[in-house]
Amino acid sequence: MPHATAKELSVLVDGDCSHPYVEVDNASSITSANQKSVSFYADKKYRSQLKSSIAGLMILREGDLDDWSGPSIIVDDPYIAFALVSNFLMKKTDFFPDIHVSLIVGENTKLDKNIRIAPYVVINESVVI
């Protein structure tokens, strides 16, 4: 399962984190978050949900810290920061090099040993990967 520390995520979104070693493994809405979730707060109409959220990490503006006492990442635009974090957590997977046996390779092609090539791929000649 993908995971990241608050410090890693704060660097990604150019924010300031309060608890750098907190780890999260998913991105969730403010109401469905759990203790391993990162969530965000960007709209005052969700103030009551912020106060009752059990998210392990919250992305919010500095001016909203009065309503949140847990681990946080402070940014200028929580919505954009959350989009970046969500994308990062979705893409972060373990990598295992593998070249499928159905690969068709052209002449003078060089393939590194640390790559992954899916089934039925065709690579033209004189390609370096």
Mean of pLDDT: 92
Main-sheet strand order equals 2-7-6-5-4
Low-confidence stretches: none
Radius of gyration: 20 Å
The biggest sheet, with number of strands, parallel, antiparallel or mixed sense and barrel status, is:
5 strands, mixed
What is the total tally of β strands? 11
First and last CA, distance: 28 Å
Topology (elements, then pairings):
Layout: E1 4-5, H1 6-13, E2 16-17, E3 23-24, E4 26-27, E5 37-40, H2 47-52, E6 57-60, E7 72-74, H3 78-91, E8 98-99, E9 104-105, E10 116-117, E11 122-123
Parallel strand pairs: 4-5, 5-6, 6-7, 8-10, 9-11
Antiparallel strand pairs: 1-3, 2-7
Q: Could you list some keywords that capture this structure?
A:
129 residues, alpha/beta, two-stranded antiparallel sheet, 11 strands, elongated
